[in-house]
Specification:
Blueprint (H helix, E strand, L loop, with lengths): L23 E5 L6 E6 L2 E4 H6 L17 H22 L5 H4 L2 H7 E3 L4 E3 L7 E4 L3 H12 L15 E3 L5 E3 L4 E2 L2 E4 L8 E4 L3 E2 L2 E7 L9 H7 E9 L1 E2 H7 L13 E3 L4 E2 H4 L3 E2 L19 E2 L2 E7 L6 E7 L7 H8 L11 E3 L14 H4 L7 E2 L5 E2 L7 E9 L4 E3 L3 E6 L10
Parallel strand pairs: 6-22, 8-16, 9-27
Antiparallel strand pairs: 1-2, 1-5, 2-3, 3-4, 6-7, 10-11, 12-15, 13-14, 13-22, 14-16, 14-17, 18-19, 20-21, 20-25, 23-24, 25-26, 25-27
Helix pairs in contact: 6-9
The structure holds calcium ion.
Length: 423
């Protein structure tokens, strides 16, 4: 059920930011300082204002002044859920009168979303990207190795991943420049250094680690450690990737940028949408076994808009397609003793569905460039072109309300003339 608010815009059935959600962001007015905020309808709640007015739990005192949510994330669900309960009490219809009946304080604490800019909601401490979507792994494997060897022999036993670059993670809205790199075509003997011709997106979810760990953690402990989720686009240069990935996996192909949505949707908001993982083809080893529903039913969409052109939805998928849950990914990450830090970001891997129109990358949608995707407004795409804006969207559908993530968007900027030219 939707929790009705006296902030009327929060009560829209498809608005994405009802009181049930309360996702965490960082905003600023033009040239102003960065401030921790929470989305509610078409407004944001400035958390430092509520804290200064003494309206938040004492345990959270002073945690909202840094312009990033890391201090709250480090404290985990326990503290956030206290703050969340207080926000619900303050903003629900017929709730606590402190804010609702104080016009001056209300005007200070609530700012229209249209009047602010959004920034990175947290400092990404480290970044790992997994490969936990079975349809994506099968599709890519079929293209590269043939249908008999689509899944590597390890794939059904553990979530495959690689260590990425926290420094490359950017918030929605930032342009992403087409990278240069070493490219090698089928008929070339030697690589050339040139702008990527096969620049692509990947539809993923990102999980954010709350309290840190030191040593192996169980799947259940990992589930408790995760603080919340964002949408994540792992921009990928397929031609750079094809040449460099043997034998150590992706490197420069994935290091240009990774875009995340501006709002951290917390586990409490997503709790009603837990669901089971897809059926297990082989039993998992005991340390990775399922311990209850740890996937989420989140509808996902990908839209592409050419520069100055209309937007087309080119894919529709769902986060429940992940073969390994975020908790299983995190548990596997710690098996060798690897310590996890608060503010670690774990990309899920591309979340493709079984159907052609549910594929989560252009590599799959165009089947390696062989079948261009038609854009109804005119034109086709095999890979991204300069000026294209790629937007990921996602929501969990509740009874009369939606839990939204906000857009995860980025525009492809043309490659530099020569990245090594010095003035
Ligand atoms: Ca990826």
């Amino acid at each position: 059920m939707m929790i009705a608010s006296w902030v009327e815009s929060a009560n829209l059935a498809e608005g994405g930011f009802p009181l049930n959600n309360l996702p965490l962001g960082v905003c600023s007015a033009k040239d102003g300082p960065r401030r921790c905020c929470v989305a509610l309808g078409d407004q944001v709640i400035l958390m430092d204002v509520l804290d200064s007015a003494g309206l938040l739990p004492d345990a959270a005192k002073g945690l909202f002044t840094a312009g990033t949510w890391n201090a709250v994330i480090a404290r985990g669900d326990g503290l956030w859920n206290q703050v969340r309960e207080r926000l619900i009490a303050l903003f629900r219809t017929e709730g606590l009168p402190d804010l609702r009946e104080d016009t001056r304080l209300r005007a200070e604490a609530l700012v229209p979303m249209a009047d602010i800019a959004l920034h990175m909601p947290f400092d990404v401490v480290e970044y790992t990207d997994f490969y936990a979507g079975r349809h994506h792994a099968s599709n890519v494997g079929t293209m590269f190795r043939g249908p008999e060897n689509a899944l590597p022999p390890n794939w059904l036993h553990m979530p495959i991943g690689y260590n990425g670059r926290a420094s490359s993670v950017v918030v929605s809205g930032r342009g992403v420049r087409r990278p240069w790199g070493q490219l090698k075509g089928k008929d070339q003997d030697a690589p050339i250094f040139a702008p990527s011709r096969r620049f692509d997106f990947e539809l993923e979810m990102g999980a954010i680690v709350g309290p840190p760990s030191d040593g192996p953690v169980t799947v259940a402990e990992a589930d408790d450690m995760i603080f919340g989720y964002v949408l994540l686009n792992d921009w990928s240069a397929r031609d750079i990737q094809a040449w460099e990935y043997v034998p150590l996996g992706p490197f420069q192909a994935k290091a240009t940028a990774t875009t995340i949505s501006p709002w951290i949707v917390t586990k409490a908001a997503l709790e009603p949408f837990r669901c089971d993982a897809p059926a297990r083809e082989l039993p998992l080893l005991p340390h990775l076994r399922d311990v209850g529903p740890a996937n989420y039913d989140i509808a996902l969409e990908v839209a592409l808009a050419p520069e100055g052109g209309a937007e087309t939805t080119i894919s529709r998928s769902n986060a429940r397609e992940l073969y390994y849950s975020p908790a299983q990914q995190l548990a596997h990450h710690t098996t060798c003793g690897c310590p996890m830090r608060s503010g670690d970001l774990l990309g899920s891997g591309t979340i493709s569905g079984a159907e052609r129109d549910s594929r989560g990358s252009l590599l799959e949608l165009s089947w390696g460039g062989e079948t261009p995707v038609e854009l109804p407004g005119g034109g086709t795409r095999t890979f991204l072109e300069d000026g294209d804006t790629l937007t990921l969207r996602g929501y969990a559908q509740g009874d009369g309300y939606r839990i939204g993530f906000g857009d995860c968007a980025g525009q492809v900027l043309p490659a530099l003339d020569d990245p090594y030219k010095r003035n």
